[in-house]
Amino acid sequence: SARIIDGVGHARRLRADLSTDIAEFLARTGVQPKLTVILVGTDAASRLYVANKARACRDVGMQSVTIELPASCTLPELLSVIDAANEDTTVHGILVQLPLPAHLPVRAVLERISVAKDVDGFHMYNVGGLVVGSTVFSPCTPFGVQKLLEAEQIPIAGQNVVVVGASNIVGKPTALMLMQKDATVCICHAKTRDLAQFTIAADILVVAAGRPNLILAPMVKTGAVVIDVGINRLPDGRIVGDVDFESVRLKASHITPVPGGVGPMTITMLLHNTLVAARASVDEAQGTKAPQ
Ligand code: NAD
Fold it and tell me: What sequence ranges are listed for the domain Tetrahydrofolate dehydrogenase/cyclohydrolase catalytic (predicted)?
């Protein structure tokens, strides 16, 4: 039976280290890292995510400001709020909570965020950084997946990685990041024919499709590492991932539970990126180059 990867424990350890680093940074520079989160509209799940991010910031000693805009907000109004945060030197990280109301063009909004403050890593420049292997900010969920693999001392180089899901926020960047670590990567998506023929070849299977029970035991190689990014709410209220946990755990060598696997790592990496942004801004103000 697989080792169950304890995302809560890994996240707790990383956040304790971050608290120490932030306190040391504040003592040395007088600067407290600050994240500005922009929330448009009243989507209940988005509100919960934003509240969780704000609390996580406070818990590690960062400042967090949430700017709430009505769902009716226009593109120029939203862009001017982003511009103000870009210009505010006390703000180190800026995040626009997705999804946006349908009338707002998501690319134009993300591209307005200063690259140096783009702690979600969704700006096209930061996406390009992933492609060429010169990363400024890695997107938080894929970064969390990579950190979990590293924390579990799972080798990546030379391994067959199959990523199920090809979204811009999870699937594609996960594939790029693990390819950068010298994995052999295959990306599957909703149009993939015979998903199982790909997943069965995976040494590391990362699943981010948003489909409960998409991955069943016969689709998984014996001894594979299974990372379940999916978060699905069933009609009975239970939260499950995309992997049939009870059957796949008998075949895998490692598996992440849902909840308690990748989820806690995502916000942790957001905190990490915000500290990196704060350090870089201080280095820039002092005219020194930030160590990468
Ligand atoms: P998305 O809907 O944007 O993308 C889903 C991807 O899965 C698409 O590429 C689609 O082609 C593919 N897909 C859908 N059905 C499939 C099928 N039957 N077979 C193969 N591929 C299929 O979703 P997303 O934003 O990438 O999120 C994916 C899942 O991860 C969701 O459940 C989401 O809630 C979860 N998520 C979790 C975290 C976290 O912190 N743990 C963060 C972001 C997203």
Answer: 5-120
